[in-house]
Amino acid sequence: MTDTALSSVDSKRLAVASQWQLVWWAFRRHHLAMAGLVVTAFLYIIAIAPGFFAINDPSQQNARAAFHPPQVIHFIDRAADGSWSFRPFIHPSVFKRDPQTLSAIYSEDKTRKNYVRFFGEGYEYKLFGLFSTTTHLIASENKAQPIFLLGTDRLGRCVFSRIIQGTQISLSVGLVGVLLSLTIGILLGGISGYYGGRIDFAVQRVIEFVLSLPSIPIWLALSAALPQDWPATLNYFMITLILSLTGWAQLARVVRGRFLSLRTEEFVTAARLDGASEGRVIFRHMLPSFASHIIASISLAIPAMILAETSLSFLGLGLQPPTISWGVLLREAQNIRSIATAPWLFAPGVAVVVAVIALNFLGDGLRDAADPYNK
Amino acid sequence: MLRFIVKRLLWMVPSLIVVSFLAFVLIQLPPGDFVTTYIATLAASNEVVDQNTAADLRARFGLDRPMIVQYFKWISGIVLRGDFGLSFEWQQPVSDLIWERMALTLVLTFSTLLATWGIALPIGVFSAVKKYSIGDYVVTFFSFLGLAIPSFLLALVLMYVAAVEFGQEVGGLFSEQYLTAPWSIGKVIDLLQHLWIPVIILAVSGTASLIRVMRANMLDELNRPYVTTARAKGLSEFHLLVKYPVRLALNPFISTISWLLPNLVSGSIIVAIVLSLPTAGPLLLQSLMSQDMYLAGAFVLLICALTLIGSLISDILLALVDPRIRLE
Description:
The complex is a heterodimer.
Chain A: H1 11-16, H2 19-28, H3 31-48, H4 50-53, E1 74-78, E2 84-90, E3 93-97, E4 104-108, E5 114-127, E6 131-140, H5 159-195, H6 197-211, H7 215-224, H8 232-263, H9 266-273, H10 278-314, H11 326-330, H12 336-341, H13 347-370
Antiparallel strand pairs in A: 1-2, 2-5, 3-4, 5-6
Helix pairs in contact in A: 2-13, 3-5, 3-13, 5-6, 5-8, 5-10, 5-13, 6-8, 7-8, 8-10, 9-10, 10-13
Chain B: H1 2-28, H2 34-44, H3 51-61, H4 67-81, E1 86-87, E2 92-93, H5 94-129, H6 134-148, H7 151-165, H8 185-222, H9 225-232, H10 237-243, H11 245-249, H12 251-255, H13 257-274, H14 280-289, H15 293-321, H16 323-326
Antiparallel strand pairs in B: 1-2
C-alpha cells in the first residue's frame, strides 16, 4: 500500500488499517462513485421488496385506462379560502372518446382531488415472498382512483409499478449471471494462471476465441432453442446461463493475470514451503489479495449483463411475459405507433440507463480504489 | 514478419473449424429436425405422410446418419461447392438469400468502424489535452451516457423523434424505388443517404469506450520527456501532438478492432431489427423464430467467421505498425 495516496488520513490509523479500510477510504473520495453506490443500493433495495414500492398491481389490466398519460403529483394543497397545507394529491382524470377517431382522451378534473397517502393500503402482495401485506410506500386514498405516475400501457397496466416489479428480475439477472460467469472465470482463469505452461496456453486460446465471437447471434440461437413451454423460473435460469456462457472470458482473463503476477511473490512461496496444500495456497493466501480487484471487475460486468438481458428480452427471445423485466417492458415500445401515442413507454429504458450508469460509476470507482498503485 | 503472418493465418484454421462446429450444433439444438417440421406443415394442409415417407425423406436429407457425418456433409457442401443447404421457410437455397444481406452487413459494420474512429480520435485527444476542463467533463459525461444507452433504445428514440417531430419514417437502407432495383450508381447514392442513421446509432457506444481508451493513452504519453523536448525545440503545439504522442496512442485503435468488431456486429443485429434494415439481423431473427435452422446456421457461421477474420486483420495490422508485437 502506498501511503502517499492517503496523506489526508492520520498516518497512525493508516499503518494499522486493513486492506478493506484502505479501499473504502480511497473509494469515499471518488464522488461520482459514491453517487453510483447510493443509486445502486437504492435500486437493489427496490429489487428486494418491489411490492412495497409499487402502487398498483403490476399485472392488473384496466380496460378503461389504456394508454393513460402520466399523472402529476401536486404537493401544496390550496383550500378555497386561500390557506394551504402540505398534502400531496392528484387530479383524477376523466375518460372520453374522440367522436371522430374513437381514440381515448384523458383530461384532468381540476375540481376533484385524490389524495396520496404514504404507507397506505393497496393491493395485497408478499413481502420478501413470505409475509402477506397490503402496505405500500405510496397509495391512493380513494381505491377506485388508481394513481398512474408513469401512465399505463396498451392494456391499462401501471407502467410505474411494472418498472418497479421489473427491477427485481433485471437486476438479479445481472447478479446471478455474473456469479455464474465468475465461477467459470475463477476456475479456468485460476487453473490457467496458477499452473501456467501448456494448460495456460490452451485456456488462453479458448478465452481469445470466446472473446472474438459476436455474442448476440449466439445468444439468439441458443435462446431460440429453449422450449417455449418451460416454466418461468427455469427459463430465467437458462437465460442467465446463456448470458454467462460468453461473459466468463473477460473475468477469467483478469483472474489469470492476477494469478500470474502473484505466483512468484514471496508470501506465496513461503506458504508453499510451509507445506500448505494447493487449495490452501490458492484460497487462503492468493485469493484474498486480489479479491478487491475481482469485486471491481464484477461490478463492471453486471451492467453488461443487464444490457444483454434487456436486448434479448426486447427481441422476444429472452424472458417471456408474464415475467416482468425491463427488456420485456420495452417490447411494448417496439412499434412506432404505440410510442407515438404513449411516449412514456420509454420509461423502462430510462431505468436501464440509470442502473447501468450507476453500476459503471460504482465499478470505475471500485477499480481505482482497489488498485494499490493508483495515485 | 512473414513468419508471424503465416503463423497467425494457421491459427485461423482451428478457430474456423470450431466456429463451424458451433454453428452446426446450434442448428441441431432445437428438438425435432427438418423433416418433423416439414411433416407438421404438410399435416396442417391435410396431407398425411406415413412413416415410410418420413424415413425416406430423412434418408434423402441424410438426417438418419450420426451427427458427425451430417456435420461433414454440411461443411463439405459449404467449403467445396458453396452450398449452404436449403432454407425451409423460403424454399430457396440459403446462398441465394444471404449474400446480399451479408454484404450490406459488412458495409454497415465497416462504415460504423470508420465513423467510430473518426469521432473518437479527435475527441479523445481533445479530452486528454484539455484534462479536467469543462469540455473534458462534458465529453466524459457523454461517453458514460453512450456506454449505458443500449443501441436499440437509441434507435427507438430516434425513430420516435423523426416520426413525431419531423413526420418522417426512419428505417430501411433504400428508398422505395430502389428496393428491388438492380445495383446502379443511383442505388449506391441512395444507400449512402440512408446509411448514416444506423451508422451514427451504432457508433455511439463504440465511440464512448474508445474515447476513454484514447484519453488514458494520451495522458500516459503527454508527460513523456520526448514531448517536452519537442516543445523546447519550438514545435507548434498542434504539430507536436500529431507528430508524436498521437501516433503512439494510435495503437489501441488498431488493436481494438478485435473486441470492437464482435460488439459492433452484435449491436448492428439488434439495431437492424429495430430499424428493419435489409442486413443479416432481421432475417437471422426470423429464421431463428421459425426454426429455419439452415438459414440461421449459415448466418451464425458467416458472422462469426467474418469477426474472426476481422480480428486476424487487426492483429496483422498491429504487427505492421508496432514492431514490439512481433518479438513475442
